[in-house]
Structure formats: structure tokens, C-alpha cells
Amino acid sequence: MVDPEVELDGRFSEPSAVPPPWSDVVDVLTRSEMFWLSTVRRTGRPHVTPIPAMWLDGALHFCTGAGEQKERNLASDPRCVLTTGTNEFRSGLDVVVEGTAVRVTEERRLHRLATLWESKLGWRFDVADKAFRDPGDQRVALVFGVPPEKILAFGKDPYSQTRYRLPAG
């Protein structure tokens, strides 16, 4: 992945703030287990849910059952936001990823993601029919990837707001 264009927003940053290194942002995305996924219902009403996600090859990935609210929302509008970080006011780094969710169906990538889910969370998935399958009850989980269109990072010591713009394509 190419390093993004970095822009510290002085309006929301302390005078001594500097942008967090891109490697710190990637570390938060890689190490975090839980994210908040924000989507929009067909009526325009927002929907937010906690969900595990995996950072792989420059995109966040999550899975959901067919017909679940988030899957129905993404079918009508694939734009979404994933947020992670800390619940602390004075320390840590919070990261917001904006992008468009794309269904992942390529078998090699699904196997790599299944390996990540098992190693990171202890969740085992089989790969079949372009999706994850729970080996115990054979429920299907559709997998989505969200390549970032914009990433915001919020530092807390000192306070900072940084925008990372990734090249298109």
C-alpha cells in the first residue's frame, strides 16, 4: 500500500501537535479487534453496530449474515464508516475509516481472511460458495472489504486531528 497524503487539521489540533505516523495508524487498524460499523438504512436512518474487522492488504474486512440489517443497508448503499480506538479521553489514537464496502468472493483472499479471524479471535470459518461458513452449524457469513477513501486519526496527547488521503485505484 502506498503511503497516503497527510494533512494535520490545525483547527482541531493543539499547536504542538504533529500528525501521527502512518505506521501508528496501520498498527491501530491491525491490532484492534472491535470496530463500530456505521451504515444507512434505506429510509436514511443510521445504523451502527460493533463488529470485528481485519486489516489486510490495505483494506478493512468484516463479515455478516445474509439478510442482517448491515447487509441489507450495504445492498442499497455500500458507503460506510468503520471506527476504532480507545474509550479514553487523554490517551490513545482513535481511527475512522470511510469507504465503500465491496463483497469479497475471491477464494484465496477468503482463506487468508479466515486464517486471520482464527489467529486473532479464535473464530474458525470454512470457505465455501464465495463466503465463510461456520463449521459447526454451516451458517453463511458474507465477507466485505472496505478500501479506505479517507482515514481520520484523532491523537490525544497532544490533541490532533489528521486526515490521510489514499491514492485512488
TrEMBL record:
Pfam families per the UniProt record, alphabetical: PNPOx_N
Chain ranges passing through the membrane: none
Keyword Oxidoreductase (UniProt): yes
Gene3D superfamilies membership: Electron Transport, Fmn-binding Protein, Chain A
UniProt entry keywords in alphabetical sequence: Oxidoreductase
GO MF terms held by the record: coenzyme F420 binding; oxidoreductase activity, acting on the CH-CH group of donors
InterPro entries membership: F420H2_bilvrd_red/Heme_oxyg (IPR052019), Pyridox_Oxase_N (IPR011576), Split_barrel_FMN-bd (IPR012349)
Domain named Pyridoxamine 5'-phosphate oxidase N-terminal: residues: 25-130
Cellular component, GO, one term: cytosol
Protein name: Pyridoxamine 5'-phosphate oxidase family protein
Originating species: Halostreptopolyspora alba
